[in-house]
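User: Could you write out the 3D structure of this protein bound to phosphoenolpyruvate? I've included everything you need below.
Assistant: Certainly. Input first, then the structure.
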Amino acid sequence: MPANARAKSEVTVQGISASHGIAYGQVFLYLQSDLEVPSYQVDPDKRIEEVARFEHALLITRGQIQKIRDEVEKNLGADEARIFDAHMLVLEDQALISETIRDFESTGRNIETCFNAVSQRYVQAFSEIDDEYLRERAGDIRDVAQRVLANLMGQAAGNLSRLVEKRIVVANDISPSDAASIDRSHALAIVTDTGSKTSHAVIVARSMKVPAVVGSRNLTSQVRNGDWILVDGYDGVIVINPTEQTLFRYGKIQLQKKSFEQRLFAANRQPCVTLDGVAVTLRANIEKEDEVSLVKEYLASGVGLFRTEFLYLNATRIPTEDEQYAAYRTVAEQLAPAPVVIRTLDLGGDKPITGNPELFPHEDNPFLGFRAIRFCLENLELFKDQLRAILRASAHGHVRLMYPMISGCEELDRANAVLDECRNELRTKGVPFDEKLPVGCMIEIPSAACTADLLAAKNDFFSIGTNDLIQYLLAIDRVNDRIAHLYEPTHPAVVRTLSQIVHEAHRAKIRVSVCGEMAGDPVLAPLLIGLGVDELSMTPPLLPAVKFAVRAMTMSDARALASQALTLKGAKEILALCESFYRARVKVD
Ligand code: PEP
Ligand code: MG
């Protein structure tokens, strides 16, 4: 550790544990929101240097963009690289440059201030133009301007796919697409000021096996690039400038946790059966087709949730039917005969498509807004492309189709009518697909839970999305760190609702799974199993711990646990019950 970090005193910041693990390293500050630009008067005899500083920043920016452009062209093709040609044009825009210099000459304010003001005027003017192409240029100007400002201010402009050394990413917030683009080999850990356990960026971090802490409030203003910090993803703690003693203590904790994780991993080869011989099905949640390797590594029984929106989030355009078909087919073929539950698009909420204001206009309440099936039913061509792609992939493995955010029977009927149209189109063309493709829906909106009996009659299976179900039942925004402590999976309302959904599903003789984050929590999994849930689906690295818990309990004990939980009055009481059930069976040391 460098001497200057040693000299500073240790500061501990409490956040929310989001992905397990401990990391120690230097900070990479990811400032994707508008940079804070300092404003000051420049000495009259430093004016030539100030303009030279501006020209130098433009030059560096040009070099950076050219490098990204070349790489994108090499990896993704010329079409995808074209966006960076537009960025180059912004940089070469003489009007923007000379207006900045004119502003500087007349006001004498530092060049960042002048450039920021001029570029913001441009962004504003372009975003008001009544022409789609020109309006999109506003985004290009904003991106480039942020990069130039970052270079002027000596800060790293954010791009998480381009971490060059191993670093701990500290950000205000990370969008799911940023998270998905993180360079896995270089991100030691992720810390965000905002967010909560079930935000999609965190789910991605968990699948990368990178420690993560969210809700660190203002860590971004407490650390600078290059500072040394320790991230404890188990307890949600960040230690800035840790002392030797702290590092030693965490070294021991890490060894202990590692050895427990190794034990779990070794035991993961055993079948997932309770002590009294009842088999429990554990499946994997994936976001991209290359995660099939994780499904295999962690021995999941196929995929219980393929979040297909991630194919869209990182693309500069909507993938075609053929591109989607190729991705779904790869997963289905590689995992056959294990099933793969492909969920139709769940864009919106904390997963908008960036740079696409036509499809996703600003909403004050995105989680209660134009999301998932609502979006698909209003964008039928896009929906049908996906449905056809899934149907076609069903000829190559054991595919199941699932709709997200279904609120009731009428919405389900509308989605199924579109699916029928797609089936007919394929039949007419003689394109093969699985005529018996199982179709189910997520139960994640309270109205769906209340009408579970009606929905069960129309579905081949249910999958309960506890992440959303809890947020809607308890009225707790799942990505708001201020109220994260109120997001309680063991709230009696949640436990009763789960029990009722399972009851209705079983009455209709369909299977029910849970694919929210609750399923991957070894302390809560016994409760779900005891409530009668047939399958659990989770981020693959969480599977060994859940299997370990299943193998350490009897089904009759789990049922008794659930029955007792249903009689209790508070979330904390039920959580304590689950924790003592777990501790009595699983020894971490
Ligand atoms: C859920 O809501 O629990 C779920 C699995 O869906 P997502 O997290 O993608 O919203
Ligand atoms: Mg959901």
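The radius of gyration is 26 Å.
User: Perfect, thank you.
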